[in-house]
């Protein structure tokens, strides 16, 4: 299962292929990797398809927008080829068309890789893994974790403030001036509560012996197992397999150069 993979190794397995995909300008390489990423997401995790689709849908619109703008406004390297169709004063050539399709598929590949990591990774384990495997300073790690844990509390406090204002007859802001004044009414109490909470957490951590020293024991030990290396290797191998298939079929294009 993807949830059992070390978060740092999973991050490397997602980030580095995404960077490598950025240099490919053909439509076949990102499409193969996109299908591979989606299959891994659903075959080796319990992510609900409906939830994944709801999150992924906005990226579809974004990818279509990227592709369409690239077709209409291509760079000089992708402006050649036969004219496929024209829209007003814009001409879409074969090279600009495939460049736009490639950009859209790369965007979807990045989105699928990001969702694979986000939906199958526990945020606390990820920060602990960064601290233990990547030697991230404990002060920074626990500070980020504390801030992340406060987010639901801030949302609840904001709801309480809004209800309190409504009880006192303060309606919704309509103009820009009223919105700025409303933002100030909400921001000052929330900021004051945040400072008080931060002071309490700092005192609690100091009272329990937290000094921020990197040499410390951990209640949750994050280790790297053989399956983590296998997971990373599969993602790297699959990228080179997709590049090889694109090369064999005559589609491979790296930095605008056809191979």
Automatic annotation (TrEMBL):
It comes from Mesobacillus persicus. The chain crosses the membrane at residues 32-49, 54-72, 97-119, 229-249. Its main location: membrane. It is a multi-pass membrane protein. It is found in: Membrane. The keyword Acyltransferase does not apply. Keywords: Membrane, Transmembrane, Transmembrane helix. One of its GO terms (cellular component) is ATP-binding cassette (ABC) transporter complex. InterPro entries: ABC/ECF_trnsptr_transmembrane, Cobalt_transport_CbiQ. One of its GO terms (biological process) is cobalt ion transport. Signal peptide: none annotated. This is Energy-coupling factor transport system permease protein.
């Amino acid at each position: 299962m993807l949830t059992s993979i070390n978060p740092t190794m999973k991050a490397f397995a997602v980030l580095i292929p995404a960077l490598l995909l950025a240099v490919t300008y053909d439509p076949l390489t990102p499409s193969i990797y996109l299908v591979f990423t989606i299959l891994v997401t659903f075959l080796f995790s319990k992510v609900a398809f409906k939830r994944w689709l709801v999150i992924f849908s906005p990226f579809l619109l974004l990818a279509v927008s990227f592709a369409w703008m690239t077709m209409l406004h291509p760079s000089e390297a992708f402006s050649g080829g036969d004219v496929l169709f024209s829209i007003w004063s814009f001409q879409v050539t074969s090279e600009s068309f495939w460049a736009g399709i490639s950009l859209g598929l790369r965007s979807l590949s990045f989105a699928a890789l990001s969702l694979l990591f986000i939906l199958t990774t526990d945020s606390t384990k990820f920060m602990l893994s960064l601290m233990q495997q990547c030697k991230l300073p404990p002060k920074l790690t626990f500070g980020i974790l504390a801030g992340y844990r406060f987010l639901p509390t801030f949302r609840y406090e904001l709801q309480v403030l809004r209800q309190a204002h409504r009880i006192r007859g303060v309606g919704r802001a309509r103009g820009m001036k009223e919105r700025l004044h409303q933002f100030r009414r909400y921001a000052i109490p929330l900021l004051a509560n945040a400072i008080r909470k931060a002071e309490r957490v700092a005192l609690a951590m100091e009272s329990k012996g937290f000094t921020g020293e990197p040499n410390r024991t951990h209640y949750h030990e994050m280790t790297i197992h053989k399956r983590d290396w296998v997971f990373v290797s599969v993602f790297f191998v699959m990228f080179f397999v997709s590049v090889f298939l694109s090369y064999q079929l005559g589609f491979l294009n790296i930095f605008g150069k056809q191979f």
